[in-house]
Specification:
- This protein has 81 residues and is α/β, with parallel strands linked by helices.
- The protein has three helices and five strands; from the N terminus they run E-H-E-H-E-E-E-H.
């Protein structure tokens, strides 16, 4: 079975499309539509991978990695454009 993946995407159709394909591939998928939801999800279960939209309502996706340290998540973060 694949690892846990958090999808942070505010567009419901895009989020669902990504989630369905990852679930079919055997991954455990968590979803968040904004940064506060993502932080709450990470507090519950630390994902192996975060797929992060950079343009989110009320905060940019780039603000999320700064929260990792505050919620005791690993300090490793890689970005890919």
């Amino acid at each position: 079975m694949g690892g846990a993946i958090l999808i942070v995407e505010d567009e419901p159709i895009t989020q669902k499309l990504i989630a369905v394909n990852l679930e079919r591939a055997g991954h455990q998928v968590m979803r968040a539509a904004n940064v506060p939801e993502a932080v709450a999800a990470i507090r519950d279960v630390l994902p192996d991978l975060v797929l992060l939209d950079w343009i989110l309502p009320n905060a940019t996706g780039l603000s999320l990695p700064g929260n990792f340290v505050r919620i005791n998540a690993p300090k490793t973060f890689r970005s890919s454009c």
